[in-house]
Amino acid sequence: MTRAVVATEFGGHEVLSVIETPVGPLGPDEVLISVRAAATNPLDYKLYSGNMGRDPARLPMRLGFEVAGVVTEVGSGTDGVEGPAGPVRAGDEVVGYRVAGGYAADVVAPASSVIPKPSTLSFEQASGMMLTGVTAVHALTVVGVGAGVTVLIYGAAGGVGLMAVQIAVAAGARVIGTASPGGHELLREFGVEPVVYGAGLEERVRALAPGGIDVAVDTAGGDEALDTSLALVADRDRIVTLIASKRAFESGIKVIGGAPGADPGTEIRSAARLELARLAEDGKLRVVVAGAYPLAEAADAHRALATGHAHGKIVLVP
Ligand SMILES: NC(=O)c1ccc[n+]([C@@H]2O[C@H](COP(=O)([O-])OP(=O)(O)OC[C@H]3O[C@@H](n4cnc5c(N)ncnc54)[C@H](OP(=O)(O)O)[C@@H]3O)[C@@H](O)[C@H]2O)c1
User: Does pTM surpass 0.85?
Assistant: First the structure.
């Protein structure tokens, strides 16, 4: 048996509770991970909010797409099962992404989702590196961010934003990032030129970059980001948003992610996991943990996340 967070019905954060639930049995290509930390993501609460459907067959709903922990059992053989970075064995410290039901003390994961935990990151940090990291790599890849490029990143101090700014800076880009004033110091630490969002954003960015913006990456959504990108970036192929909307599709910019009509980037995202682990191992990728909560306080963790103003990852610690 293990302990896991479930949503018992569709609704607000109060529907979350911890249950005792059986583990396994493991399939031949699966491993059991003793979870040391599970990262939360906005998608987690959107799934039980009811805004993405209310199919009763999905209840009780396990949550959590990413974890860091220690492998306690492997499905077949004693030499481990093959993962993307080689054999996965009992005792290995690992990151699991994607997993199903990561908000738990133990989770079963396919070995194809398991890679070694970078030694430079704590379990809490490592749990939050993948969903945001692969999204950031995908976004930066489709718009072509590299040396000499000036990129504007909206929501730069959020989960995806902080990954995107680090990868862009490491690639040699000049990064301007939008955030509320409380996030500016953090962004400067990462080599970002911060700018507040809200009325007058286009003028503030023009003042910082009179030579123009080559690329825009929107992790915030909404009309302000779209209007500002369309005004500042000449080539619509070099504007990307994570937030699907009718206007985003109609304007001809790139829309990525799981929404209907968006580019899921499956191969780029899958390959990005090892690239992110390497960057972290080389000390070029830091994960900011904005808060850590016990499993039993998952609802409070989601309340903090759902403010939409977290600066870093909010994680659960079983
Ligand atoms: N399409 C995909 O594949 C994909 C993947 C991952 C996430 N997402 C989505 O992308 C969004 C961001 O995810 P996340 O994990 O980065 O969330 P997060 O950690 O909650 O960060 C959100 C950030 O947005 C900023 N923000 C809030 N309102 C803003 C505004 N009006 N203008 C500019 N920035 C604003 C906040 O900055 P301040 O605190 O400074 O205000 C906050 O740091 C979520 O909606 C998520 O569901 C999509």
Answer: yes
